[in-house]
UniProtKB/TrEMBL annotation, chains A, B:
PANTHER family for the chain: HTH-TYPE TRANSCRIPTIONAL REGULATOR RUTR, POSSIBLE TRANSCRIPTIONAL REGULATORY PROTEIN (PROBABLY TETR-FAMILY)
Domain of life: Bacteria
Transmembrane helix listed as a keyword: no
Pfam families for the chain: TetR_N
Feature: DNA-binding region: 45-64
Keyword field: DNA-binding
InterPro entries hit by this protein: Homeodomain-like_sf, HTH-type_TetR-like_transc_reg, HTH_TetR
MF GO annotations: DNA-binding transcription factor activity; transcription cis-regulatory region binding
Residue span(s) of domain HTH tetR-type: 22-82
UniProt cross-references to PROSITE patterns, sorted A to Z: HTH_TETR_2
UniProt-listed Gene3D superfamilies: Tetracycline Repressor, domain 2 (1.10.357.10)
Protein name, entry field: TetR family transcriptional regulator
SUPFAM superfamilies on file: Homeodomain-like
Length: 202, 202
DNA sequence: AGACTAAACGGACTGCGGTCCGGTTATATT
DNA sequence: AATATAACCGGACCGCAGTCCGTTTAGTCT
């Protein structure tokens, strides 16, 4: 699936990670979840995490590279789940439904995902240089592009996929939901409207 | 125009700012431009700025509130210029042209603006909690919304305006131009395509 | 078992944005 | 001119993400 720089399957790690490293990774992820459920994602600092997990700060950064990397690791499981649902799961999200319906379902799924994991998603995007490095982002982009093509879109589908993806930007979605009290269903309706118009033949 | 928390007209400041404050603001803005032209926007730190301007660090934050506020102040003139062009200037950007053409022109203008002031715009968006506080953002949003209505858009024009605005997100635009080598004209073409499809009657 | 090595460890350190508060100074008032 | 006061000034200080490097240790080879 998406290639992540560090092992993350809870069991598979196999022949490449020392036992103390594995033990510390577990401790760190556990402590991170604990801290987040206590203080929210914003209350998780790298120092506190290191202390709580009983490891040195250097170890935290060795494992996850950055705060954003840690958040990505915490999201990894649900991320993979969502990915496999829209790539291999049942229609209309997965293959088998008309492209337009899949596009609508994709947006709806993404909106639900962002609403559910709010702060984590936000924190994961910080990765200094760009939220376009998030490996999953390339996948979504490509997915939208392919669906556009399938739906008979006849212009620059690569750029259009990016524009549509921007409408699903987590920061925007969460701002609408949290600060403007917009109901997620209304977001889904607007997304449906958007993609329908974009795909609709001249 | 957009209400900015600190005085910024080079002359008008009038009856509310002590002379030493005015002098220091000038020094700071001057030093900021100097530093940016030497080291780029990324090389401007608040400490360096304070030192270069010969003032204390506290003064910098008193004047501009944050790094993002400083960047906003640096952009203020060109921002106001752009705003008055699309609000009062000649068509197709200003009033007088059909709504769809104005929408296209607005996107083109914004793209050109972002490409020109790249790093500054990026730095101005950092404002910790959200890039939706930037006073100008509300104006663009409203502008797009009104143009959508004028063009006969018959659905949730407020949310649609936000979705379209997201396609003009500076971080995205600059990533496309700088890291993917996309020509600005291609961005404009894609924007035209997007708004045309969105506005096009069923 | 003993020695070797590459990997992992930990915590002091840096540079950053941002805050705080005691001292200073411009301006209005009498 | 003397006084009062509100605004301003400066730089020590804080918490943060991220780096560096000397030390320890797990896994391997003989």
């Amino acid at each position: 699936m998406t290639s992540i720089p560090f092992r993350s399957g809870p069991d598979q790690a196999a022949a490449a990670e020392r036992s103390d490293a594995a033990r510390n990774r577990k401790r760190l992820l556990w402590a991170a979840k604990e801290l987040i459920s206590e203080c929210g994602a914003g209350g998780l600092t790298m120092d506190r995490l290191a202390e709580r997990a009983g490891v040195g700060k250097g170890t935290v950064f060795r494992r996850f590279g950055s705060r954003a990397g840690l958040m990505l690791a915490l999201l990894h499981d649900s991320e993979v789940d969502f990915q496999s649902r829209f790539m291999f799961g049942p229609p209309p999200l997965g293959p088998g439904a008309p492209a337009l319906e899949r596009l609508v379902a994709f947006g709806a799924g993404r909106i639900a995902y962002v609403v559910e994991f709010g702060d984590l998603v936000l924190a994961a995007e910080d990765a200094s240089r760009g939220r376009f490095d998030v490996p999953a982002a390339a996948l979504w982009h490509r997915h939208i592009e392919v669906l556009l093509d399938d739906a008979g879109f006849d212009a620059d589908s690569w750029l259009m996929a990016g524009s549509l993806g921007a409408a699903l930007d987590p920061e925007r979605l969460l701002d609408l939901v949290r600060r403007h009290g917009v109901a997620p269903e209304r977001l889904v309706a607007s997304w449906r409207d958007l993609v329908t118009r974009v795909v609709r033949p001249a």
